[in-house]
Specification:
There is one protein chain. The chain is of the alpha/beta class and 463 residues long. The protein is built from 16 helices and 15 strands. It has a single domain, classed as Alpha-Beta Barrel (TIM Barrel). The longest helix has 28 residues. Bound molecules: beta-D-galactopyranose.
Length: 463
């Protein structure tokens, strides 16, 4: 039996744009994802989040589902343009009322709310007015929005996450341009990343000064990282793998835990990487009460100094030219529907690497999961491959705990099938199946399995 610590937080996660729908109801303003979805060719099948899982109208049902599964915690995000439709200024009472009701329902059912303030649905107004995350004023606008949320919900919400995956916002939104706002550039990701860190720092400062003492909650950031394994034992490949991890998660975690960007980034990027003022670093250093981590896959990393190969994988590594890293996968690894390799040992290695680099912070895996082409048959979804995935990754988490990593909890991505960004609804990450026509919720076998894991605080492992 793989037993987990008694107070281990077992959760499920979603985000506002991916599940809520009601994109223009009750005073909500447009977000950059509402607009991005309107542009032909940006999202598979022309899918949009206009209706999504219709969670906005199915709150009670969804919380009842969580209760049935025995979730101890639910991680969701607040849509900034639902709270402040134009990004700045007037607050939308109906938006506040929606999240207030959700939080109350969760607490009535003994489910701890974990609230992300930014999961990519930036108010479109701020994209027009201040160039989104590239703008000098954006971090202050975010901090003001965060303040509104702390004030409205902080009496009941004790776990705050400022920003979800700054790496994705920067690289996919401003580098590869495949996510909103769709900009393509080699330089802009570093500016966007800088402003995301400033926004995080300013929001945390407000929370700590105005609210933390009386509300007694904690606040942190969630960053994402895959594992990078050296392709060979050569020193050059080992250094390449280290560099790849630094350009991935240390980009955002080093400023928070060490007070500056990693040396490898500074020396390689020169002026292209903004630098922090003393005042900024005072806000950013030590600004996370826990380490939020989203983790999905692993790749091999090889040194490519002077020879970036044609067709090398750029997608998971940031801007490869800046790193001189070639990424690859073992052809024998099983892939999910996202074509991401299933490599549980990579998860364990990453957790141990983070623990060593950042002095064993309390880590919460705030997302881990997989997409498969699930089929509904006779009212059931037999997703044995998803159960195997979770067994593998939870076994890795368990092993990391045995080795001294300070793990606080684990959130499944995702509670339900939802709008998977540029892939639309084709990619199904849920432990709950959403029937296309009716939007009925049908717990998959993996949901029933997860409920048992939570009930027992662990599982019998075949591994
Ligand atoms: C994360 C993201 C989620 C979800 C997941 C699966 O990067 O935070 O919103 O889409 O990936 O791709």
């Amino acid at each position: 039996m793989k037993k987990f610590p008694k107070d281990f937080v077992w959760g499920g996660a979603t985000s506002s744009y991916q599940i809520e729908g009601a994109w223009n109801e009750d005073g909500k303003g447009p977000s950059i994802w509402d607009v991005f979805c309107m542009i032909p060719g940006k999202v598979a099948n022309g899918d949009t989040g206009n209706i999504a899982c219709d969670h906005y109208h199915r709150l009670e049902e969804d919380v009842a589902l969580m209760k049935k599964l025995g979730l101890k915690a639910y991680r969701f995000s607040i849509s900034w343009p639902r709270i402040i439709p134009a990004g700045r200024g007037k607050v939308n009472d109906k938006g506040l009322a929606f999240y207030s009701k959700l939080i109350d329902l969760l607490l009535e059912n003994d489910i701890e709310p974990w609230v992300t303030l930014y999961h990519w649905d930036l108010p479109a107004a701020l994209e027009f007015e201040m160039d989104g995350w590239l703008g000098e004023e954006i971090s202050d606008a975010f901090a003001k929005y965060a303040d509104v949320c702390f004030e409205a919900f902080g009496d009941r919400v004790k776990n705050w996450i400022t920003i979800n995956e700054a790496w994705v916002v920067a690289i996919l939104g401003y580098g590869h341009g495949v996510f909103a706002p769709g900009k393509k550039s080699n330089d802009l990701p570093y500016l966007a990343g800088h402003n995301l860190l400033k926004a995080h720092g300013k929001a945390v400062d407000i929370y700590r000064k105005k609210y933390q003492k009386s509300q007694k909650g904690r606040i942190g950031i969630t960053n994402n990282c895959d594992w990078r394994e050296p392709l060979t034992n050569s020193q050059a490949d080992k250094e390449a793998a280290e560099r790849a991890l630094e350009f991935f998660i240390a980009w955002f975690a080093d400023p928070i835990y060490k007070g500056d960007y990693p040396e490898s980034m500074k020396s390689r990027l020169g002026k292209r990487l903004p630098s922090f003022t003393n005042e900024e670093i005072a806000l950013i250093k030590d600004s996370s009460d826990f380490f939020g981590l989203n983790h999905y896959t692993t790749m091999y990393a090889a040194d490519s100094t002077g020879k970036i190969e044609e067709g090398s994988v750029y997608g998971n590594g940031g801007l490869s030219e800046d790193q001189d890293v070639n990424l690859s996968v073992d052809p024998n690894w099983k892939l999910t529907d996202m074509q991401w390799a299933i490599v549980p040992w990579g998860c364990q290695k990453l957790l141990e690497w983070l623990a060593a680099r950042y002095d064993n912070p309390e880590i919460y895996i705030t997302e881990n999961g997989c997409a498969f082409d699930d089929i509904l048959k006779d009212g059931k979804v037999e997703d044995a491959d998803r159960i195997a995935f979770f067994e593998g990754y939870l076994t890795a988490v368990h092993a990391a705990i045995q080795n001294g990593v300070n793990m606080g909890g684990y959130f499944i991505w995702s509670l339900m099938d939802n709008f998977e960004w540029a892939s639309g609804y084709d990619k199904k990450f849920g432990i709950t199946y959403i029937e296309k026509e009716t939007l009925n919720r049908i717990p998959k076998d993996s949901a029933l399995w997860y409920a048992e894991v939570i009930r027992k605080g662990g599982f019998e492992s075949k591994m």
